[in-house]
UniProtKB/TrEMBL annotation:
SMART domains: S4. This is Pseudouridine synthase. InterPro entries: PsdUridine_s_RsuA/RluB/E/F_cat, PsdUridine_synth_cat_dom_sf, PsdUridine_synth_RsuA/RluA, PsdUridine_synth_RsuA/RluB/E/F, PsdUridine_synth_RsuA/RluB_CS, RsuA_PseudoU_synthase, S4_RNA-bd, S4_RNA-bd_sf. GO terms for biological process: enzyme-directed rRNA pseudouridine synthesis. Gene3D superfamilies: Alpha-L RNA-binding motif, Pseudouridine synthase I, catalytic domain, N-terminal subdomain, RNA-binding S4 domain. It catalyses: a uridine in RNA = a pseudouridine in RNA. Belongs to the pseudouridine synthase RsuA family. One of its GO terms (molecular function) is RNA binding. Residues 3-61 form the RNA-binding S4 domain.
Length: 241
């Protein structure tokens, strides 16, 4: 089946789709001996693809890993501020080139999905896919039950609309104390939980992602990683492939 060259290169583990477009603009990609001029080019199993004069092998099968991201690591391949990245932490695991499904900010921890397939990453991140992100969040401050429960209808803060947020509230809590909440997101904008809680007068002092779609953090500890068996992947990701 034919597919766009950028997707082909992403699945082959050469680069991201965005990087593929840059490679093409720089004249570094050839198909059947001709330098590509547009990322809209379609290729199939009979196409001979080269990057920097080297042949590109057939794309690898989709692989997915669950990784416990520790606090203090940034979810990026290169950080201009010199902070340690999750991909530096992963070097000891001898993985192929992988990308993350979404991100966790510097001070957040827990489940981060990793994949060698950019198509799967986009599929998992799309709101229309409907994969919930589940968190255990410790907040400091007075809990306004009515305000927290109203988040299921969404909320707009400084012109940014946040879609449905489900919050499980403890049965009892005292004023101005730490409480653990269970929060489920269905969209996942940048630093969404922290911004919404801050708007409600609550300070997040710990945030752990425990689940993403059909995947769970389970018994993983910080820095640990677990590959999802291919038979499990095939149950969920035929669309992504």
């Amino acid at each position: 089946m034919a597919e766009r060259i950028a997707k082909f290169l992403g699945r082959a583990g050469i680069c991201s789709r965005r990087q593929a477009e840059q490679f093409i603009a720089e004249g570094r990609v050839k198909v059947d001996g001709s330098i590509l001029l547009t990322p809209a080019t379609l290729v199939d199993e009979s196409s001979k693809v080269e990057v920097d004069g080297k042949p590109v092998a057939e794309p690898l099968k989709t692989r997915v890993w669950c990784y416990y991201k520790p606090v203090g690591y940034v979810t990026t391949h290169h950080d201009p501020q010199g902070r340690i990245t999750v991909f530096q932490d992963l070097q000891a695991h001898n993985l192929p080139r992988v990308i993350s499904v979404g991100r966790l900010d510097l001070n957040s921890e827990g489940l981060l999905l990793l994949t060698n397939d950019g198509g799967f990453s986009r599929f998992a991140e799309l709101p229309k896919t409907g994969w919930a992100r589940r968190y255990r969040v410790r907040v400091y401050g007075r809990l306004d039950r009515r305000a927290l429960q109203s988040l299921k209808n969404g909320i707009t803060i400084e012109g940014i609309h946040y879609d449905r947020i489900d919050v499980e509230i403890p049965n009892s809590s005292s004023i101005q104390t730490n409480n653990w909440l269970r929060i489920t997101l269905f969209e996942g904008k940048n630093r969404e939980i922290r911004k919404v809680m801050n708007h409600l007068g609550l300070q997040v002092n710990r945030l752990i992602r425990e689940g993403y779609g059909p995947f769970e953090l389970g018994s993983l500890e910080p820095h640990q990683i677990l590959e999802i068996p291919s038979n499990i992947i095939s149950k969920f990701f035929q669309i992504a492939n």
